[in-house]
């Protein structure tokens, strides 16, 4: 049986893993010998976004892991079930569930369409629920089971509550599920944690913003989230659960102090829901 401090031969199921942070985490785990099942809708190239779930598999395998693509929608029970069945069929079980798939719409309430509201709730909350629920029977059989959800800390600062209430509701819904599951499954020894970036991350979503070029210059590489995720997922599940981690804080606790390798310049843009700068993580304030 592999050590709890390694990802060798451990199997991850990742939602929305065809690009961005989800793919970066998959590649980061693959570098440590993990198997990865990628569930994503992008079976064919998107006109505005790079990569497909199939190119993602190639990237994961190039990094040293094994990977399988499942073209499907995290909102659909049958697609989620197929992803889980694929993991069990190809790799014999599931050790890690990564809830990465997410939709964002930050229009003011009076301009936000019900369709976009529903999309955020369906992908962010329902998708997280469906994938986690489907993985749970197999996580129970793992030596070191983890569920990691890409969701923010519960920051009740009125600014964030009022900035984009519908999106905030959907992301905090993911966080509340994770924190609730940590308590519900404490006796089973399954770790449930959230991970959120301190700063903007250089993804297609940032690139497609109105000031995308400028935003990318002040954004860090997705590898910072991957490195933080690998650190969390390598920890003993019973000792690491019910937490809302910030990427830089995780890496500081692992001995990293120089984040220049991840880009973003001297003053990378703080991400939404984050009030504090890296100085706090380094205990310099």
Topology (elements, then pairings):
Elements: E1 11-15, H1 20-30, E2 35-40, H2 53-62, E3 66-71, H3 77-91, E4 96-99, H4 114-139, E5 146-149, H5 158-163, H6 165-184, E6 191-196, H7 204-207, H8 212-217, H9 223-233, E7 243-246, H10 247-253, H11 278-281
Parallel strand pairs: 1-2, 1-4, 2-3, 4-5, 5-6, 6-7
Helix pairs in contact: 1-2, 1-9, 3-4, 4-6, 9-10
Mean pLDDT: 92
CATH architecture: 3-Layer(aba) Sandwich
The largest beta-sheet arranges its strands as 3-2-1-4-5-6-7
- CA gyration radius, whole angstroms: 18 Å
Counting helices, strands and paired strands, the structural category is alpha/beta
User: Number of DSSP helices?
Assistant: 11
Classified in CATH, the superfamily is NAD(P)-binding Rossmann-like Domain
- Number of separate strands: 7
Q: What is the CATH topology classification name?
A: Rossmann fold
**Strand percent estimate:** 5-15%
How many domains is the backbone divided into? Answer: 1
Low-confidence stretches: 277-285
Sheet of most strands: 7 strands, parallel
Apparent shape: globular
Structure explained in plain terms:
This is Short chain dehydrogenase. It comes from Mycolicibacterium litorale. There is one protein chain. The protein is 42% helix and 12% strand. The protein has 285 residues and is α/β, with parallel strands linked by helices. It has one domain (11-281): Rossmann fold (3-Layer(aba) Sandwich), CATH 3.40.50.720. It has a seven-stranded parallel beta sheet, with helices on both faces. Helix 4 links the parallel strand 4 (96-99) and strand 5. Helix 3 packs parallel to helix 4. 45% of the residues are buried.
């Amino acid at each position: 049986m592999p050590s709890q401090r390694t990802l060798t031969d451990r199997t991850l199921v990742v939602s929305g893993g065809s690009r961005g942070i989800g793919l970066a985490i998959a590649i980061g785990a693959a570098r440590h010998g993990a198997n990865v099942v990628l569930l994503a809708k992008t079976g064919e190239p998107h006109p505005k976004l790079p990569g497909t779930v199939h190119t993602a598999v190639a990237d994961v395998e190039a990094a040293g892991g094994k990977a399988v693509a499942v073209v499907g929608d995290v909102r659909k029970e049958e697609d989620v079930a197929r992803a889980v069945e694929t993991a069990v069929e190809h790799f014999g079980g599931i050790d890690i569930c990564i809830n990465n798939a997410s939709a964002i719409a930050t229009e003011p309430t009076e301009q936000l369409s019900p369709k976009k509201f529903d999309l955020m709730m369906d992908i962010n909350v329902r998708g997280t629920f469906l994938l986690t629920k489907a993985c749970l029977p197999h996580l129970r059989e793992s030596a070191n089971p983890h569920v990691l959800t890409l969701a923010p800390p519960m920051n009740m600062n009125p600014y964030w509550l009022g900035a984009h209430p519908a999106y905030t509701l959907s992301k905090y819904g993911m966080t509340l599920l994770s924190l609730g599951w940590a308590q519900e499954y404490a006796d089973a020894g399954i770790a449930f944690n959230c991970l959120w970036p301190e700063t903007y991350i250089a993804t297609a979503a940032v690139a497609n913003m109105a000031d995308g070029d400028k935003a990318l210059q002040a954004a860090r590489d997705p590898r910072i989230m991957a490195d933080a995720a690998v650190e969390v997922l390598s920890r003993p599940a019973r000792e690491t659960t019910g937490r809302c981690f910030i990427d830089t804080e995780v890496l500081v606790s692992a001995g990293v102090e120089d984040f220049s390798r991840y880009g973003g310049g001297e003053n990378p843009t703080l991400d939404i829901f984050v009030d504090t700068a890296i100085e706090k993580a380094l205990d310099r304030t």
